[in-house]
Design brief:
Aspartate Aminotransferase, domain 2; about 375 residues; 3-stranded antiparallel beta sheet; 13 helices; Aspartate Aminotransferase, domain 1
C-alpha cells in the first residue's frame, strides 16, 4: 500500500541520536538550544522555543497572549489541535469563511467576524500555502488584534519572499511524524517578541524560572529556582532536537522534491475535467505539505477513494469542518461556513512525500487517470 505520508529519515538522523545518547544528556539541553537557534535563523525570527508537540506550541503560543474568555478567529478547515488550543486557553473559537482555491481564511469574511471580544486571528497555512497575510495583518492592525500563524504545514513556505513563521506576532510549527520537518513529535514557537519567547520558555517547563541544563555547573548544582505561574511539561528533549537539526539541513532538498512531485501530478491531472489541481498564488512558495485535489462531487470523490484503495493506494480527507465534530456542535451549536460546508465533501489528499518513488508516482497517476467518474 502506498501511504499518504511517509517520514524521510536516514543515517544522519540515526547518527545524531546516537551522539546524544552517548553524551549522557538526553533531556532539554544543548541540542535543544542549538535547534532553536538554527530554526530561528532559518525562519528569520529572533527567538524560537522548542516544545514536545505542535499542539503544545499552539497552546503556549496563545497562552502568552492572555486570551482568556476572548474570541479567536480561525479556520474551520484544519486539524483539531488548532481549535483545541483556543479551548485550552478558555477562549472562544470563531470560525471564518475560507477561500475556495487555497482553502485558507478569507480576510473579507474574517473582517465580518470581528467583535469587541476578538483578541487574535489564528491563521492556518493550509497544505503549506500561506494565507493572505498582508490583508490579515492590516485587519489586525485596524482592530488592535494579534496575528498567530498555525504553520504546522508550512515549514519552508514563503510569502512574498518572507518565510512562513515570520509573518505575524508569533507562529507555531509542528514536527509530528508526517510533517515536512519531523522530530518524531515536537513543535516550535517562533517570534520576534522577547517577552513572549521568555514566557513561553518558562511555561513549557512548569513555570520554572530556569531550566535544569541552565543550572548545571552553578555552585551546588544551582538547585534553587522560582515558579512564577502555572506551567506545563511541554519541553523538547535533546534526542528529538538532534533529529530536528539533521532534518533542517535536508529541508530545502526535501521540499524541492515535494514541488517536483506536485508538478508531475499537476501536469498529469490538469486536463481531467472532473478534478481540480491545488492552487498556488504567484506570490507564494508552498512547502507542498500535502497534495489536495478537488473532485467534481462527493459521490465521485468517495468512489475514487475506493478505487485507489483497491489498487493499494492510500488517500485521505483533510479535513471535515471542525464544527461538525460532536464536541464543537455542543460548544458552538449549528454554525457553518458555506465554502467549507461544500468543499470538504469534494477534497481528497493523494500520496506526497520526498521518498515517493518514480514507480509509485506513476502508479498514482495511472490509477487516477484510468478512473471512470
Amino acid at each position: 500500500m502506498i501511504p499518504v505520508f511517509r517520514p524521510a529519515l536516514g543515517a544522519e538522523e540515526a547518527d545524531a541520536v546516537r551522539a546524544v545518547m552517548e553524551s549522557n544528556y538526553i533531556g532539554c539541553g544543548p541540542k535543544v538550544k542549538e535547534f532553536e537557534k538554527k530554526f530561528a535563523d532559518f525562519t528569520g525570527v529572533k527567538y524560537a522555543v522548542a516544545t514536545n508537540s505542535g499542539t503544545a506550541a499552539l497552546h503556549l503560543g496563545l497562552k502568552v497572549l492572555d486570551i482568556d474568555k476572548k474570541e479567536i478567529i480561525s479556520s474551520p478547515l484544519t486539524f483539531v489541535s488548532t481549535i483545541h488550543s483556543i479551548l485550552y486557553n478558555k477562549a472562544v473559537p470563531v470560525f471564518s469563511g475560507i477561500q475556495s482555491d487555497t482553502l485558507n481564511i478569507a480576510p473579507d469574511i474574517a473582517r465580518k467576524k470581528i467583535s469587541e471580544k476578538t483578541k487574535a486571528i489564528l491563521s492556518v497555512h493550509f497544505g503549506g500555502h500561506p494565507c493572505d497575510m498582508d490583508e490579515i495583518n492590516e485587519l489586525a492592525k485596524e482592530n488592535n488584534l494579534f496575528v498567530v500563524e498555525d504553520a504546522a504545514h508550512a515549514c519552508g513556505s514563503e510569502y512574498k519572499g518572507k518565510k512562513a513563521g515570520n509573518l505575524g506576532n508569533l507562529s507555531c510549527f509542528s514536527f509530528q511524524a508526517t510533517k515536512n520537518l519531523t522530530t518524531g513529535d515536537g513543535g516550535m514557537i517562533a517570534t520576534n517578541d522577547k517577552e513572549m519567547a521568555e514566557r513561553a520558555r518558562r511555561l513549557r517547563w512548569l513555570g520554572i524560572s530556569e531550566g535544569t541544563f541552565e543550572r548545571i555547573g552553578k555552585k551546588g548544582y544551582g538547585w534553587d529556582y522560582d515558579v512564577s505561574e502555572l506551567g506545563f511539561r511541554y519541553e523538547m528533549n535533546d534526542i528529538a532536537a538532534a533529529i530536528g537539526i539533521a532534518q533542517l539541513k535536508k529541508l530545502g532538498a526535501a521540499n524541492k522534491k515535494r514541488r517536483e512531485i506536485t508538478k508531475q501530478y499537476n501536469d498529469s491531472f490538469s486536463r481531467l475535467d472532473w478534478l481540480d489541481i491545488p492552487a498556488e498564488r504567484s506570490y507564494v512558495k508552498s512547502s507542498n505539505h500535502n497534495y489536495v485535489v478537488k473532485i467534481k462531487n462527493q459521490k465521485i470523490r468517495d468512489r475514487l477513494i475506493t478505487h485507489l484503495a483497491e489498487n493499494n493506494i492510500s488517500s485521505s480527507v483533510h479535513y471535515k469542518p471542525i464544527y461538525m465534530h460532536t464536541l464543537y456542535r455542543k460548544i458552538a451549536g449549528n454554525i457553518s461556513t458555506p465554502v467549507a460546508d461544500e468543499i470538504w465533501k469534494r477534497i481528497l489528499t493523494l500520496p506526497l512525500f520526498p521518498g515517493l518513488k518514480d514507480g509509485e508516482i506513476e502508479k498514482v497517476v495511472d490509477c487516477v487517470k484510468k478512473f471512470k467518474p
